[in-house]
Amino acid sequence: MDYSRILDILNPAALRATRLLAVGCGSGNAQAVAELAKNGIARFELWDHDALAPENLVRHLLGRSSLGRNKAEALRDRILDRNEQAVAHAFASRFEDSPEFAAALAEPGHKLALCGLDDMNGRFRLNRACVQTRTPMVLAMVFRRGIGGMVFRYEPGACGCFNCLYEFAQANGLFLDEADIEPAGRSREEVYGLGLDAFKKSPGLSIDIGFISLIMARLALDALVPDTARLDFPRLSSNLVTFATRPDPAHGMRKFFDATHFRLHPQRGCPVCG
What we know:
Layout: E1 19-23, H1 27-38, E2 43-47, H2 71-82, E3 87-91, H3 99-106, E4 111-115, H4 120-133, E5 137-142, E6 148-154, H5 162-171, E7 181-183, H6 188-191, E8 199-201, H7 206-224, E9 240-244, E10 258-262
Parallel strand pairs: 1-2, 1-4, 2-3, 4-5
Antiparallel strand pairs: 5-6, 6-9, 7-8, 9-10
Helix pairs in contact: 1-2, 1-7
């Protein structure tokens, strides 16, 4: 891998021992992983139990040659095609069923979990595992129909965890568990109280997802690059970025391509991070 064109920005050699644990290899996480593979990350461990299907092609980084293959295994091969010196391992299972994932969290060394899960329960489980093992995590959500999204970074001891974000959102009238799903052919009043079965996934166009994936990759790289490797790579002070791809007044999004930065502190009484 020839990094000569980015050496005046950061030093990829300082990232050789850094490990990226990608949980979920869907359209959002796959693009973020691919970007990190271009920017100095060379050790990857990938988890996904799903296979690439024809309906995935409209949004996913992977192409027709990967149809029917496990997404983690196909993404591993894509990484190795770009950087033959990379070390990449794929696990065709859910992270919570994988002894390799538990071992990866327990192993010492600089690492980060990249959460591309599309269900709230999975996000909570991964958040708890990262808090318990003091593993940094970057998590992204694309809001319904791709009107925008959010990227959140958990830094052990420095900010709140994802459960803190969820508690804060609920206390302020925001409901993240409905942000990336919408009613399936029925009004909000009709589906209210019926549970998630009355909703459908509608994550938007690949371009909409791509904006969030790139922000996700940038926050992840920021967490992974040590200060000694930063030549012209300033550190972000925010750990939560919301991004509007287009105006949507009903959701407080006022204009195209509008990013807002926040710093979420630990919430008092959080049952996960204390």
